[in-house]
Amino acid sequence: MLPHRVVVLALDGLLPFELGIPHRIFGRPRDAQGRLLYEVVTCSVRPPGPVETDADFALHVAHGPEALATADTVIVPASYELGPVYERGELTDELAAALALVRPGTRLASICTGVYVLAAAGLLDGRPATTHWADAERFQRLFPRVKVDPDVLFIDDGDILTSAGVAAGIDLCLHMVRRDHGAAVANDVARRTVVPPHRDGGQAQYIQRPVPDLQQASTTGARAWALGRLHEPIQLRDMAARESMSVRTFTRRFREEVGVSPGQWLTQQRVERARHLLESTDLSVDQVARDAGFGTAQSMRQHLQTALGVTPTAYRRTFRANGAARPAPAPNMSNPQNVSTARATRPASASARALSKSSTG
User: Does the first or last residue of the chain, that is N or C, have fewer Cβ atoms within 10 Å of its Cβ?
Assistant: First the structure.
């Protein structure tokens, strides 16, 4: 099986850190035989040559726009020199010509202000998208037909994915690896990259107290305690008691530190636990449900259907038998200025909005 080809579009004014994220994340995953699961290529909208960055150095990019025609996934990182794309929401001629090379069915993703390129191409009209919180208001004014959510880390809308800035790009790329090859592969990449294995796309971009004040109590201990007993019933009052806080104070501080409520966080951890068990063990669905803390198979089925769009059995079949999910088809980009009618099937609930459909089964 040929590796999935990821082509990263390098535009003048790019941020080197964000350009490197796809190479770092997609350059790591391997199959059981040690073969790379992805091939990562960087291209420019011009013939091979230098591309300016926002730093005091340029990068030599070895591929021109023709590489976009070979992509299974195209990623557009942030750039500070988007010109008319950023100022008026219009593609330059060379950028429009480059995007016209992207084949129908190609998955598209953006990191931070890279979303301006997708929006200027007309690909986000009527669809949910996100970008860096500091740029969200301006982006919404420029592209009023886009459903901008300024609070989340990333949004997976099937064939098009968008993320907030910098570290959220890591979350997005790990999410795509998880969507393609399952939690075990994504967790291995995260471990090698020394980053958290999973931050839910719906988590808030701006967390008031990501580093707890040493003078005040934190919820860290309660989280560690809960992770060690996900298979047991866990009450909010029990978590609050671990930190000697009232339920109200604990809930407020938890959201300040984590970006979601304790209940949302517990569900996320249990879904991740269930995914791991479904991929890596032969336990029955009933046993997985008990070990992950859902109690019953029906409860787990409902939560996985909401979060992932698939049943436990379909998830296990996808990632144990097939090895990878097939990315959803993308709109035809032969005329990127006017693509607005093709749409992916969206998750049915708000809680699933930022998560993928891992399989059609």
Answer: N
Of 291, 146, 179, the residue nearest 229 (C-alpha): 291
CA–CA separation, 301 vs 337, rounded Å?
A: 41
Distance CA 139, CA 133 (A): 10
The alpha carbon torsion through 283, 235, 153, 25 (nearest 10 deg) reads: -30
| 62 and 9 Cβ atoms separated by less than 8 Å | no
CA 256 remoteness from chain centre = 22
Residue 109 · residue 162 · CB < 8 Å = yes
Q: Is the dihedral of CA 284, 285, 291, 297 positive or negative?
A: negative
The per-residue pLDDT for range 161-193, each reduced to its tens digit, is 999 988 899 999 999 999 999 888 888 898 888
What residues in the chain have per-residue pLDDT under 70? 196-217, 321-361
d(CA 201, CA 168): 9
